[in-house]
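Comment thread on ticket #2218

A.B. wrote:
> Attaching the input chain for the structure job we discussed in standup.
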Amino acid sequence: MWKWTRRIGLSLLAGLLALSLLVGLWWHWLDLDSQPTADPATRAADLAFLRERAPPRGRILAVVTSTAQLGDSGRRGGYELTELARAYYTFVANGYEVDIASPRGGEPPMRTDDDMGAADFAFLNDRQARAKLAATVPLADVDASHYDAVFFAGGKGTMFDFPDDRTVARLVGSIYDAGGVVGAVCHGPAALLGVALDDGRPLLAGRSVTGFTNAEELFLIEDARQVFPFLLEDRLRQAGARFVEGPMYLDNTVVDGRLVTGQNPWSTWSVAEAMVRALGHEPVVRERSGEELAVQVLQAYRRQGMDAALALRRRLPGADKRLLLMHALVAAMQGHPGDAWQLQRLARG
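C.D. wrote:
> Ran it. Output below, let me know if you need it in another format.
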């Protein structure tokens, strides 16, 4: 028995040493703080795709949450700036005037993060956009007949004031029944819960949708089931939707006719452009951001393996190294050192 105990102990020691070596080597390359970020002075005039904007086509309403705190948890709520700003400029570039509304009106609580890109900083420096944001229209005052589409930005606060709200449901139902497009990203699809159409049928019944997944939520907030009134994926499934889950923290946009949903913040560009297509127009040409290029590389890794991802990475030198490294970090935290090692290799190119 002593021999087996000694062998097991040596094996564990060897494993720990190997893991320590792997972690040490990995952290040597994992230098997130040194990676370049977007210029905070960026303005809308600096966004090339806005210079080729389409002629006027109509109006789109963007809706953000008014919830500043997540229940009594002490955690901050609010909407995600990246999810509003990127959709906002996509709609503007494609000929749509964009109004911004919120359940309570006025200036809603904003969340920013380390993933701020050029469009996000441009929004912060855009006087017209910030004026709309400082005085969002209360949802009760919105006339749905003025809009060709409605877009619900995400942010964890949406889980408290979007679901099963009569005003939200009436707005969504009215725009959809009139032939308009309904879009939502990340936690934004919470707005679709409780929506019924003119014929009494729930909007979500039998529809293909996505949203922030249980896996994504619980990875970031272990006690999410206690913090939120429900998990979004669970409620969407319970409402009769066909939930389409993609890989964690990668672009996954689902189009079901005039209903467009995105899984997480990295789906915002594709959700907005899919909404433009659903409105009958091909989106203006837009150079893909470094973040989007990195997502393409990560998707290639998940679907086709390391060789294909490395080949694509070399063809896309502008892929955001920071995002690739962040996915390496996520893999390590999930207990997948092999993926962590490969992903940091991708970051190095």
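A.B. wrote:
> Thanks. Noting for the ticket: Residues 288-349 form one domain.
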